[in-house]
Every structure is written in structure tokens, then in C-alpha cells.
Specification:
Elements lengths: L1 H5 L11 H5 L12 H4 L1 H14 L3 E3 L7 H6 L6 H13 L7 E6 L14 H17 L4 E7 L2 H14 L3 E6 L2 E3 L2 E3 L6 H11 L3 E5 L4 H12 L5 E5 L2
Parallel strand pairs: 1-2, 2-3, 3-4, 4-7, 7-8
Antiparallel strand pairs: 5-6
Length: 234
């Protein structure tokens, strides 16, 4: 991926996962990651359709595949299995020259002192998920929809310290009277600086906004880095 980017190529990623699965049998409130086990044909079909449509990179069905999120569905003991399968399903459909990126979303928990989770526990949680994605054949990891910089940087660290994956990290920004911020008060410029310092290979923004606002956020990010940017509008 980094070699392609260094050549000046623009890589096109895929589209929505959750709404696709809901259109193919996932009930409201159901666990998307469990589909990797119970409905492999659906998950593989999703990856195949996105590759067929022209995606250079398809994300795995693992956005909520961390221990904290899966425990809420009663699947806390299936982290490694669900994530490995998620990567295997996408990998099985990837044409030559195309890539699989492991999707890693927020844990839904707050770090101490705001919440009950220690830095070491969160680091281990991300490492468990991300190493399983690598085992399943992912080329990269996309740490996405982050709101807290501390949590996102721990996920980047987990990937860098435990895998050889390309690390892409994107945050979600909303526009208010004073400009763009995450829910935890991080600006696009602060997000770029913090994620790059943590070791991310590609930084950017995802979710929540239409493309017009994404253009504005990308411009703010570009003003503080000449590195690679990822932009994935909702």
C-alpha cells in the first residue's frame, strides 16, 4: 500500500458494511461480527461486490470486534476467531493487486480517570484484535471513527508494536460554531499531529459528514502535513 502511495496512486476504498449486512439478514441490534462465523457467504459476497465495483481496498467486517464491544453481545471469548475470519473472508475475494484492511473501531469505553479502563488494558485489547486480523491475512489496519486521541494512539501503538501491518488512523469530526472538533474536543490539526507522532502511516477522517465537510477537513489536515491522507465520508 505504501509503495503504491509513494508512486502517487490514489487508492479507492469500499462503502458501507453495517447497512449492507442489514440488507442481507442482520437484525437491528444484532452483532455484525458474528456474521463472520454464521454467514460467511454474506461477508464474502460483500467483499466480492466491493472489489468488483472497483475498490482497491476493502475493509473487514470487524469494526466492533474488540473485547469490550463483543462482550456486550455475549461474544467476548470470540475476539480472535471473529477477527481472523473477518480478514480471511475479505482476503479470499481480493483480486491480485488489491488490499484487505482490518477495520478497528472504538472500544466504547473511557480510559482512566474518565472511565474504568487502564492504558495497558486498552493496549492489550487492541493488540488482541489487530494481531488476529493480521493472522487472517489483512495487509493493513484502519483504526477508524476515533473520537479520543488517547484511545486512537493506543490502537496505533498496538498495531505498530505487534504487527507488520500498514497503519491507517482516522477520526470523526463535527462542525460547530468554533470549527471542527471530535466529541472529545480534538481538532483535525491536533488529530493529525497526535496520530503521526504515535506512528500511523496514513491519517485522516471518516464518517459523520457529507463530502463537502470532508473537503474542508482534508484542507485543514493538509495544511499541517504533507503525508498520506485517508478520507472516507459517510
Amino acid at each position: 500500500i505504501l509503495d503504491r502511495l509513494a508512486q502517487g496512486d490514489v487508492l479507492i476504498s469500499d462503502g458501507a458494511t453495517g447497512t449492507y449486512l442489514q440488507g442481507h439478514g442482520l437484525e437491528a441490534g444484532g452483532c455484525p461480527e458474528e456474521f463472520n462465523l454464521s454467514h460467511p457467504d454474506v461477508v464474502q459476497g460483500m467483499a466480492r461486490q466491493y472489489f468488483d465495483a472497483g475498490s482497491d481496498m476493502v475493509l473487514t467486517n470487524s469494526f466492533g470486534g474488540n473485547k469490550f464491544m463483543l462482550t456486550k453481545y455475549g461474544h467476548g471469548g470470540s475476539v480472535r476467531e471473529f477477527n481472523r475470519l473477518a480478514a480471511e473472508h475479505a482476503r479470499s475475494q481480493a483480486p491480485p493487486g488489491c488490499y484487505v484492511a482490518g477495520s478497528v473501531g472504538p472500544t466504547g469505553e473511557f480510559l482512566e480517570p474518565l472511565g474504568p479502563v487502564s492504558e495497558s488494558e486498552m493496549l492489550d485489547t487492541f493488540a488482541e484484535q489487530i494481531t488476529a486480523l493480521e493472522e487472517g491475512g489483512a495487509d493493513a489496519v484502519v483504526i477508524e471513527t476515533a473520537m479520543a486521541l488517547e484511545e486512537a494512539t493506543l490502537a496505533v501503538r498496538a498495531a505498530k508494536e505487534n504487527t507488520d501491518l500498514t497503519v491507517i488512523s482516522t477520526m470523526i469530526f463535527d462542525k460547530g460554531p468554533r470549527g471542527y472538533f471530535t466529541m472529545m474536543g480534538v481538532t483535525p490539526e491536533q488529530g493529525v499531529a497526535g496520530l503521526l507522532e504515535a506512528g500511523a502511516d496514513v491519517v485522516g477522517t471518516n464518517c459523520g459528514n457529507g463530502i463537502e465537510k470532508m473537503v474542508e477537513i482534508a484542507e485543514k489536515m493538509r495544511a499541517v502535513t504533507d503525508g498520506y491522507l485517508a478520507v472516507n465520508s459517510n
